[in-house]
Here is the input.
Amino acid sequence: MASFKLLLLPGDGIGPEVMREVEKVLAFVDRQGLAGISTEHALVGGSAYDAEGKPVSDATVRIAGDADAVLFGAVGGPRWDRVPYEDRPEAGLLRLRRDLGLFANLRPAICYPALADASSLKREFVEGLDILIVRELTGGVYFGEPKEIVTLESGEKRAVDTQVYTTGEIDRIARVAFDLARKRRNKVSSAEKRNVMKSGVLWNEVVTGLHRAEFADVELEHVLADNCAMQLVRRPKQFDVIVTDNLFGDVLSDIAATLTGSLGMLPSASLGARDPATGRQAALFEPVHGSAPDIAGQGKANPIAMIGSLAMAMRYSLGLADAADALEKAVSRVLDDGTRTADIAPSGTNSVGTSEMGDAVLAAFAGALG
Ligand code: IPM
Ligand code: MG
Here is the structure.
């Protein structure tokens, strides 16, 4: 039996509550002998800043680098609005992404039939929706230098962020998108703003060249990022895989998330390059939702995005593809049975809390494994 070391970073807000549900599933996986699982916990975000003076410590980054996978809850909240910019909770997440080289962010947006009426769009537009956003995660305007606010001689201030991409960065994320499309409906939509940005011109050229050279069997379309946003709310089912840069990916994935009924449903995987010698690949799995400070500590957060992130970890880092399928089916099953946390319950109907939802998914998972 293979064994794995996981680092759990619950973070702030609802992070610890939803992580607890994932720990139940992990304990079950270990108990059943599907894989040996050992876990370690560390702080990240505002809670790390309060206890350790940094939103992520050097030691935690080191442990994350040695782990087979990192499971991440959420960071941030109004409590830390006044901490210095470099130490804000989000900086902990950004440092992990950068230092672990997690350049490929996979954000699947799936609309479960049982939730089609919770979407902001009419059922016919979202029922059966299954798209995958492949977001570049370690480049672009998030990390480009200079990044500063300077005071001019006139006394006016000037802020600069820099959007920067190299051919290598574009090539490696496009490869991830084409490879994944081949296992799906074989279509890639590449979103940029080549009509106003040089980085968009280069993005378009590199994706086109790679497609011609190695992935001509995959259908490729280029779409301007603003039009992509519009098409996502107009006719989302036209998409299969969307590949895009860090900032556009951030925005487009929130749009895709809301189509599925609730931000509380969407998992994500952030992957590094696989080391050809050892086969190791850095990986972090996190729900797309944030720390939801308004409902933190009340036991009513939806743990499904966090549990879905564990399913992605099983698939991409633990070699447990069948168990990952079973866990995703368990979620679907529980939703079909009508179990709902407040975010996905039609108004005026009953809802369950975080731990009841976690227990229901675990029971269905155990049942599916027989
Ligand atoms: C996300 C989040 C982060 C981002 C924040 C928390 C820094 O919005 O993962 O989508 O902007 O990447
Ligand atoms: Mg975001």
